[in-house]
Amino acid sequence: MTLRLAHISDVHLGPLPKVTRRELFSKRITGYINFRRNRMNADQPEITARLISFLKQLAPDHTAITGDLINLGLDLEIANATNWLVGLGDPADNTVVLGNHDAYVRGARDKAMAAWQPWICGDDGKAVASDKDYPVVRRRGMVSLVGCNSARASAPFLATGYFHKDQAKRLGDILREEHAAGQTTVILIHHPPFPRATARHKRLIGLSNFTRVIAEHGAGLVLHGHTHLATEAWLYGPERNIPVICVPAAYQWPGYRKPPAGINLFTIDGSHGSARIALQRYAYTGSPGKEIILTEEKVLAG
What we know:
By secondary structure, the chain is α/β, with parallel strands linked by helices. It has eight helices and 14 strands. The chain has helices spanning 21-24, 28-39, 44-58, 75-88, 108-115, 117-120, 165-180, 207-217, and strands spanning 2-8, 62-66, 94-97, 136-140, 143-147, 161-162, 184-188, 204-205, 221-224, 232-235, 242-246, 262-269, 276-287, 290-301. The radius of gyration is 18 Å and the shape is globular. The mean pLDDT is 93.
């Protein structure tokens, strides 16, 4: 059975709701200044809307969203993102993992987890309320989507993620079980899980916990966000190297200092160890008639 899996990330839904002085009396003040300086663009909501319209035309079997749906962890942002997810489609067809902006200040992550439960929980329906509930697993045909969590509140001027050894142990157990069942595994995580992927203040703490699990158990594919870039990296696995793929942020406009908004579409066919995985990258151009174009097509495995 073939699965067509779309990947988007770092939606940073706008426009930003009105922020009270009380809400800004925290790390949010630095984020608010950063948003107004670097992300405030009148076209941002329209770009995201057009990207999602094109995504629906592609009609993937499933869509993975690797975090940062919001900006400052505001209650109204979480509510707006919930409505946006409802418009995206059936939660069974859309999987979300959280990013650092979804956990921007203490308490925001818990609220986001509660509101987005239908999109973040596994097939077992068990409530996801803390790190100990990760990873989660969603089986779609011969593909198992494995959602990991790297999001947690951090100090001002930091955007670090964290991958604890306990979550690594559970990830190893899940990969062993899914691979034994012949499932091709796709791991979802917000922060890039490979060395020198980003600046130190934005890195994944506990990176070695993740890479050791992959080196021992392997995976079909790893998808992440956070950097807002169209990158391809590789991690050592037990039998072959594992592709690690990122997609540009879903709001970025052409001419911005990072690549414009994009969608990655993967076609995954086959069981663990022999699956063929193909990638198509689509990018927003803003040009009439060719608003979103195919920019890359390649086979990653098989």
